[in-house]
Amino acid sequence: MNTINSSLTLWHNLYGLSKAMLNLAHEGKWDELIEHEVSYVKLVENIAKNPIPLEQTRQVEEARQLLHKILENEAQLKGLLQERMTELRKLIGQTGTQKSIANTYGKFSHDILIPTNLNQ
After folding, report:
1. Is 50 exceeded by the pLDDT of residue 82?
2. For the chain, what percent of residues have pLDDT higher than 70?
3. Are 52 and 7 in contact (CB under 8 A)?
4. What's the pLDDT at 93?
5. What is the mean pLDDT of residues 16-45?
6. What is the pTM of this model?
7. What angle do CA 25, 18, 78 make, to 5 degrees?
8. How far is CA 13 from CA 8, 21, 57, 88, 99, in A?
9. Residue 53: CB partners within 8 Å, gap ≥ 6?
10. Which of 17, 22, 40, 87 sees the fewest Cβ atoms within 10 Å?
11. pLDDT at 1 over 50
């Protein structure tokens, strides 16, 4: 019975962690989100190693409901991560453009450009 409770506790922990990760994504705390991913993967591995016996129908159903919520959180998180990737691509593109402009105009930085015909 203790193993069943600990297995169900793992499911609850995974759900809590998925909510925390989703909140971090909404807040734009990407570095913290990445740090949580390691714990998330470890929890998933623990769940796989400690399944709930199928004859424990109440616990299995509770785990199933938690899994559904976890998958919903993952889908939302995936969407937010995709938006972030789009933002980063845009920033990288802008940086490349700025570097190109700086390189092009930097070649002329040592030249003094003086208009020759001021009175015309």
Report:
1. yes
2. 76
3. yes
4. 80
5. 96
6. 0.73
7. 50
8. 9, 12, 20, 31, 46
9. 4
10. 87
11. no
At 94, list the tokens: 């802008």
Tell which residue, 73, 78, 101, has the closest CA to residue 14.
Answer: 73
Query: HEC profile for the chain?
Result: CHHHHHHHHHHHHHHHHHHHHHHHHHHCCHHHHHHHHHHHHHHHHHHHHCCCCCCCHHHHHHHHHHHHHHHHHHHHHHHHHHHHHHHHHHHHHHHHHHHHHHHHHHCCCCCCCCCCCCCC
CA neighbours closer than 13 Å in the CB half-sphere of residue 101: 6
Q: Which two tokens stand for residue 79?
A: 């969407």
